[in-house]
Write a structure and sequence with these properties.
alpha+beta, 5-stranded antiparallel beta sheet, 5 strands
Length: about 250
Amino acid sequence: MLVIIGLIVSGVSFGMNMQRSSEHQRIKQKFVDQWVRTYNEYYQRTGMVPGDSFSTPTFIVNANADAAVLVAILAAANAGNYSVLDGDPFDPSDDLYPARLCEGSANDSYPGARESDNTSMHDFFDSIGAKMPPGRAEGQEDRYIYLDSNGNPQELQVCFQWNPPGTYSGVGNVMILRGLTPDLARLLDSMVDGQVDAISGLFREQGRTVGDALGRDWTKVNTDSVSVDGINEDESLVKSITAHYRMNQ
């Protein structure tokens, strides 16, 4: 009897893992890959990246959101030195590069996190008729709801931003993916780069540095949960990770 119960439990666990793996595959194909396609479609149709200036293209995402920032970007381009746009990497108040291009607020709490502004990411893609993924709902194409390993809903959100030289999560224009469970982050990394390595390739963990004490793996595992009263319950929400996916343009 115990053997039979053990086989049943193993079968249920295997089935759940297979189901979760299939869902992760769908997220990659139906959401992440489709947002890459949407971004590339915008570039192909307009010859510039989303949020760039039509009159003075910089090939920097959201460069046209702030006139003073655009002037600083053009000055840096003329001088051939974009590093001057970033003062203290842990203090965003002195940054001279654009805010994140998001739909709604999508800010992180790690030191030096870039804030988003009030610019509508959807409006940029709608303006050229680019087809966005279905996402969570109409008007929330940048969101995707899925279940973590404890069966709790997680919300994945896409934004775009430009990373200055020296950014370990990838220099240049990147797609930001907020709300990745550790399993999903590792799977996407493997599918994009062919291996799991949080600090190299096109798909990297936000906020990491080369040679840090955490090594090359992603910082969290599925046992890292959001605690309630200091206790991580089996059903607690799994802590999420933010990744940067470098774009071709």
